[in-house]
Amino acid sequence: MSQDAADGFQRRLGLFDATMLVAGSMIGSGIFIVSADIARDVGAPGWLLFIWVLTGVLTIIGALSFAELAAMMPHAGGTYVFLREAYGPLWGFLFGWTNFLVIQTGFIAAVSIAFAKYLGVLEPSLGTDHLLFEWKFQTPIRFSIDVPWTDNPLVFFEREHFAISSGQLVALGIAIFLTALNCLGVREGKFVQNLITVAKTSGLILLIVLAFTLAANSGAMQTNAANPWDGITQTKAFLDTEKIMPVTALAVVLVLSGAMVGSLFSSDAWGNVTFIAAEIKEPRRNLPRSLILGTGLVSLLYITANFGYLAALPLRGDEALSKKLRAQADSLAKEAHEFREAGLFEGAEGAESLSREARARAVEAAGIAYAHEKRVATAALERVSPGFGVTVMALVIMISTFGCVNGIVLSNARLSYAMARDGLFFQSVGRLSERGVPVAGLILQLLWAIVLMFSGSYSELLDYVIFAALLFYVLTISAVFMLRKKWPDVPRPYRAFGYPVVPALYVAVCATIMLGLLIVKPIFSWPSFAIVLAGIPVYFLWRGKGEGRPF
User: Which helix (H) or strand (E) holds 180?
Assistant: First the structure.
């Protein structure tokens, strides 16, 4: 069995630290916003909960299977090592290539931008809407393809201008700070990760408690419970899919596959803990436990949060009415301000009262599906207090995204380190500092993340890679079967739960989702597949240049 050269790493992470890394890397901004997109696609409360439950079950099953591989091979690089040993170095490289090019660096860029976006809620001059520079192209950049099953061409990439906002500079600062922090050592990185993960988990729990208590809405609960499974065949997503797949049952499966993109991304990055296996104490015991505890905790919180959303808000909404009421609320708020400026305090109080009433009605009218700027969690807390909801959720999401970025920065450079040790990445990335940290890898991923931040394409990149992420999850879980045959006598401190039925079920369900994405999300799934395939010539070029050795 191949071993990574991990002698310079320092085993400073215990079970709690590893579990916090799993949970902290998973909880970003997704759980607070993506239910709006899902609700619009599925059109019914039952299907919304089904998607989150299925995502949670898949995540936990995946973790249970990963745990066998992690306990067998607790080396730096994690998933890269599993794929390399099961299928050969090409498959390990393709995972590392895709991971570095778009998955993890794209996450760093996009989640750092999300931090800045919600900072802009509190201080607009620091947000992503505050432009500092803009250059409009004379000829827009556009790449599209005509396909027979849609009326309009599929637009894969479109850009009309290049802009720099205050939010991008804030995101830049966040990424630089967390990279510098993790260059100091794993102990410093884990301290921030533990602190932030506890804080944002507490914030999510607070949201859930408030959703079921002060924000609870009996009218919304009755509406949601009346027809929990009706509505999916009336959504735009279903009507568009039906043109391709006229069989209702299959069309529903395709719609659900497409709708799961948001929930899957919100539950991703749990496997990152395997990247830092060389720095975990008693890894053969603590790695499996951290995977199971971390994914179980987050999945439970995510499912409960969506029950909370449905307790506070109706799933369906009226977008036009909501926008009209929100415009009235803004107009009345402006009027109240003018009254105060003129010293007419009674008029100001009356206008403020009407503004709050209009805003509350706007939240109710929007429901989950059309929550303002997709901020479902904020909408739920606005039922407690408009000002309270916006401010508190902005702070919670800022804390959450900060911790998510730190977890990804901390773990991802270890994957690049493992590739470099195999001669498949820059030689300098395969060296450790005196503190046992792959500093060159941390700096290189920072530089590429910065490119993505200012390219304006970070959000599209995240959409593109969900297909690739599922592909590598399927390959990794399948590696459990491969290595059972390849290495039947190798000790397994932990064995995958329910083998072979449960891992096979994971592979089958994820394969179905992938096929669905190729049909209903071609704009994202096909470029995702192309990114993976583009790594094949790069692999052979690198092998030929370096002859399999670091250079």
Answer: helix 166-183
Residue 172: other Cβ atoms inside 10 A: 20
pLDDT 10s digits, 255-274:
998 888 889 888 888 888 88
238 vs 256: CA distance, rounded Å: 9
159 SS3 class: strand
> Mean pLDDT for the chain?
86
Kindly report the backbone phi and psi dihedral angles of residue 205, in degrees, each rounded to the nearest multiple of 5, phi listed first: -65, -40
pTM beyond 0.70, yes or no: yes
When mean pLDDT is compared across 135-144, 191-200, 395-404, 419-428, the lowest value belongs to 135-144
Asked whether 167 and 119 are in contact (CB, 8 A), the reply is yes
How much of the chain, in percent, has pLDDT values that exceed 70?
92
| Residues ≥6 apart with Cβ < 8 Å to 388 | 381, 382
What is the three-class DSSP state of 162?
Answer: strand
Gap between the Cα atoms of 278 and 78, Å rounded? 9
Q: Would you call 548 helix, strand, or coil by DSSP?
A: coil
Alpha-carbon distance 360 to 366, whole Å? 10
Residue 147 pLDDT exceeds 80? no
- The answer to whether 160 and 137 are in contact (CB under 8 A) is yes
Q: Give per-residue pLDDT as tens, 283-303.
A: 889 999 999 999 999 999 999
pLDDT at 164: 87
Residue 503 · residue 483 · CB < 8 Å: no
Q: Which CATH number fits domain 15-223+236-317+367-546: 1.10.357.10, 1.20.1740.10, 3.40.50.720, 3.60.10.10?
A: 1.20.1740.10
Backbone torsions φ then ψ of 155, nearest 5 degrees: -95, 110
CB contact at 8 A, 55 and 330? no
Element (H, E) at 44: none
DSSP 75: -
Chain-centre distance for alpha carbon 531? 19
Q: In which element (H, E) is residue 142 found?
A: strand 131-145
> What pLDDT shows up at residue 310?
95
DSSP code, position 494: S
pLDDT, tens digit, 9 for 90 and up, residues 50-69:
999 999 999 999 999 989 99
Tokens of 14: 């215990």
Nearest CA-CA partner of 534 in 101, 19, 57? 101
pLDDT at 97: 92
